[in-house]
From TrEMBL, chains A, B:
Keyword list, A-Z: DNA-binding, Transcription, Transcription regulation
Residue intervals of the HTH lacI-type domain: 18-72
UniProt entry tagged with the keyword Transcription regulation: yes
Keyword Transcription: yes
Protein name: GntR family transcriptional regulator
Source organism of the structure: Vreelandella nigrificans
Length: 344, 344
DNA sequence: CGCTATCATGATAGCGCTACCATTCCTTTT
DNA sequence: AAAAGGAATGGTAGCGCTATCATGATAGCG
């Protein structure tokens, strides 16, 4: 018996989902015209467009973006990879990205590495599998495999948070300079026994870069630059606890330069509870310019980093690139601002 | 001339992307066996599996998830829709979701409504287009169109944050009860002139629910329950500013029940700056149990809501459902805890 | 030993959409 | 008037993968 008797035709469509072909039929046009009416409205007659849109509405058509992406190998998905969601700075960058990208019809695929570069590599692989239109990642450091993968990818890559020569596009600030800036400020104020306190500097290596800048300035003055590295992630709690530790290890400390505002504010509030005067007994400085720092007494001296702005700018530059425009500058310095409060 | 002379064969593959067929060829098996080796490892011989995995490694194959999703109409994408990313409570829920879902190989598609239900509807439509495996959304309220869309969707829907009868699954807490709880606490402490302060209660309607509970308790005692509604979103700044406003409008105020800890902490810190004693001159209570509240002096009385736990539990329940297990309980109450500090 | 049950594998046919090329019917140009 | 260009539309053939069914090989059974 020959095999060309398909008694039962293969039947795969499971759902009652409305397809573009059905819309096209209802609108009296071909599927491809319906597709164009939705995706390139200027390429069809007004008449066709109106009929298609009307049919879409009437049938409750929801475009199958998966099929569209497969056919066009463009997805309007943007992969965003951050090392942490607890740290609010990344969330603020995401927010800036989000609002700008969503307005242009892009969707965010969110990944969290927990400061693990191998995890980043895995996420990048997965996201590539989604034919993402672009990738945003926090930081310029990647492991070897990830670097290779990124280098061979033919879509825009945006590295944010720190300024430097990256894979492709870059929006960030100079953390070494920020560290120098705060250290200079502390020197100017007359402090000489200054401790830098950071949390997990191998993970939050940008805080490590700020320490480099800090140390540079102190050493240029012939001053030592002791470092206290905490084993927990930065938090109010960790900051509060670190105060005791620092004063025990370095009894002559006049000022503490904290890696971020959470630590600094935690220490400041703890100092108050312990009856220590800030900055009389101990001066405290932070980094980020979180609102909290403005509401404690004395106000926290800190460095304001434009985080949402960084996200928005990164998104705008990506959109420029994705819409085929030439990109003249690949690096964008968003800068930072020293905000002196009463705490130093 | 007949049309069957395809001089130039249509050529669409643009990239040099390695495909599953190439892997299969390299491994000496058919494409479908290669597919099974990767997705259902227990359905192929150990020999085949080893060869395929080796070929994957050697060729640097990255699965095209878009094609896979189209073919299987399953995507391992989970849509997560929140009203805000500024408000840290949602971020913490996302974090709980994220860590649990990623561990199971699901990816998060993130959407932000900015407290706009029409925006939510648009996001839901878009996400459905991605054949998401499930949808997580904050809150039980949707507009009519969105409700219809959700009701007809044949994948799990998880509504988080507030407890109640939702579309499908639900993990949250009872905000009315939380409002009652704090109000009772304030009554117990002897306060009678109590003002509730919230920010944009039509948007943050859960804060409105807490006010309902609050009012219920006060009215049962024959006490009025004045409400001050701010026009900005909750923040330290708004809390600080509200203090003056409340005292001007209600000079006899003994206690302020704030809709959240940001407002409360802002007011508490502002009171200190103004030389007001807390709780002597004015008692202050919040909601959420943010770390900040534990570090101010006096410690903030608040209600602790298990936000990350809420995210984790929601994720676990979704995974149960997605792996075909029976779900016996659709509603999960994560509860809350009154945390009394010195501020009341 | 024949019969069914189980396993490993493969051939085929889509999933729903869009890129590509071809066609038709105008309008413009020289 | 003929040639050239442009706008609107459609036919065809995939995008890269997996569901479905079919097949052959092996095992289990009385």
């Amino acid at each position: 018996m020959s095999k060309d008797s398909p008694a039962t035709v293969k039947q795969r469509r499971n759902s009652d989902q409305v397809t573009l072909s059905q819309v096209a039929q209802a609108a009296g046009v071909s599927p491809i015209t319906a597709s164009r009416a939705l995706n390139h409205p200027d390429k069809v007659s007004e008449n066709a467009r109106r009929n298609v849109l009307e049919a879409v509405e009437r049938l409750g058509y929801v475009p199958n973006l998966v099929a569209g992406s497969l056919a066009s190998s463009r997805s309007r998905l943007i992969a965003v990879i951050v090392p942490s969601l607890i740290n609010t700075v990344f969330v603020e960058v995401i927010k800036g990205l989000q609002e700008t990208l969503e307005a242009e019809g892009y969707q965010i695929l969110l990944g969290n590495t927990d400061y693990d570069l191998d995890r980043e590599y895995q996420l990048v692989r997965t996201f590539f599998g989604w034919s993402c239109s672009a990738l945003v990642t926090a930081g310029l450091r990647h492991n070897q495999a990830c670097h290779t993968l990124l280098a061979n990818w033919d879509h825009p890559i945006m590295e944010v948070m720190e300024l430097g020569k990256g894979m492709d596009l870059n929006v960030g600030l100079d953390h070494v300079a920020a560290g120098r800036c705060m250290a200079s400020h502390l020197i100017d104020r007359g402090y000489r026994h200054i401790v830098y306190v950071g949390a997990r500097l191998t993970q939050d290596y940008r805080a490590g870069m700020r320490y480099e800048g800090h140390r540079e300035v102190l050493q240029a003055q012939g001053i030592e630059a002791p470092l206290v590295e905490l084993d927990t992630l930065g938090s109010l709690q960790a900051g509060a606890e670190s105060l005791t530790q620092v004063l025990a290890q370095h009894p002559h400390t006049q000022a503490i330069h904290f890696a971020n505002d959470d630590l600094a504010a935690g220490a400041l509030l703890a100092a108050q509870r312990q009856g220590l005067s800030v900055p009389g007994d101990i001066a405290i400085a932070g980094f980020n310019g979180l609102p909290l720092g403005q509401h404690v007494t004395p106000q926290l001296t800190t460095i304001l980093s434009p985080r949402e702005e960084m996200g928005r700018l990164a998104a705008k530059e990506l959109i420029r690139r994705l819409s085929g425009k030439n990109v003249y500058r690949r690096q964008h310095d968003v800068g930072f601002t020293l905000q002196t409060g009463g705490s130093t």
